Hints:
- This protein has about 475 residues and is an alpha/beta fold.
- The chain has helices at about 5, 20-30, 45-55, 65-75, 80-90, 135-140, 145-150, 160-170, 185-190, 215, 220-225, 235-245, 250-260, 275-280, 285-315, 315-330, 335-345, 350-375, 380-385, 390-420, 435-445, 445-480, and strands at about 10-15, 35-40, 60-65, 95, 105-110, 130-135, 160, 175-180, 190-195, 205-210.
- The strands form three sheets. A five-stranded mixed β-sheet has the order 7-6-8-5-9.
Amino acid sequence: MSSLAMDGGTLKVGSKRFTESYILGEIIKQSAAPHVAAQHRQGLGNTAIVLAALQAGSIDVYAEYMGTIAGEILRHDKAIDLDQMRRELAALGLGVAVPLGFNNTYALAMRGDETSITSLAQLAQHRALTFGLSHEFIGRVDGWPGLAARYGLPQRPRGLDHGIAYEALAQRQVDVIDIYSTDAKIRQYGLRVLADTQQYFPRYDAMLLYRLDLPQRFPAAWQALQALQGRISESDMIAMNAAVEIDGKSFAGVARQWLASGKQTNKQAAPRSGLLDKIFGDDLWTLTRQHVTLVLLSVALACAVGIPLGVLAAFSAPLRQTVLALVGVLQTVPSLALLAILIPVLGMIGTVPALAALFVYALLPIVRNTCTGILQVPQGLRMAALALGLSRRDRLLHVDLPLALPVMLAGVKTAAVMSVGTATIAAFIGAGGYGERITIGLALNDNDMLLAGAIPAAVLALLTQGLFELVERWAVAGRQR
């Protein structure tokens, strides 16, 4: 019997939204692939989202760092040993094993020409410095709050995506950024890494964080993953990050080369693809299908719920403000916050929570326009319908809704166009769509990749608007006949 037959199901590998995590996710997937069907759900966002996906069973394993596990997941304010970490993770149904061989600690860095400051302690004397720190670092217990307290730093940092922080530093828009010690761009931008003289940052040794049932469910794959122990050196990781961020290689290609040779070389650096090549890449059809599916299903669900709610609001004055206020409040919930809430509630990542979020955002224009359209129907026509013997149900179906249809369609059009843009956030929880290109572009600070996701989304929004305008004209023409 083959090892593939012994293992059941698909091994689902996760990764966060930065270059190194994408690469490690590919190494894990490709290491397991000869023994089991494996899938990489990449770019799932920050620690909170990927951890929720792991606990919900939406992924089985991902590469994490000991400092992050201790501080961000287990909420310790100081380093703990591996045995204690394993005991506490076991209570969550999780395990940690297979140290990959390198330490990727946090640090702060400045431009190389800022020679007057060499350590974190000196920052306290320079209040005018502008800090541009990643949002996760600002909120982490092992990040900015503790660092500022330890060194007495008075500055108030600005939140920046990690992928664009280097460029912001080079353009002198900020003076200090947070970095990972294995970032390839440290050398590329000639940055000065500030000395952590009080040893605030713990070691961030890369490990595999996994569900405890993984070794039993996928024994052959687990044995293959254990073979990764100690194999990735810090120089290997820096070289792999550079191959992606500087040489333009793919995550999968870099992982494949390292697994084949045990090291990463830049001798075969491929020329960077242009914007058109990225727009019309091999994944265009798949991403388009995923994006259109998300929009169609979410808008259809919003119509199924929103139209009856709009009718209810139109004919029930006491409930009108309550219904409109409720859908209005739902519209104000930040999209990423809503996704983070839905993952533990629904117990999964991917299409279902993405659909739920898009459904919520599509409700308001549909409910509001349905209510408005029905309220605009002349009262005389309603009285005439009743005088002709039509029941309330028949009047709704044959008078109110047909006359309100143009206004209702305008609401559905607004919801659909908004959903095309909002659906790009689905990539943060593994639901695909054009947002996958946008998240990769953010991680790599690759403007062409960002545009390769944004341009198709904009084109799809224009096509959606044009389609609904044709339907509106048809509806108006039908009324006139």
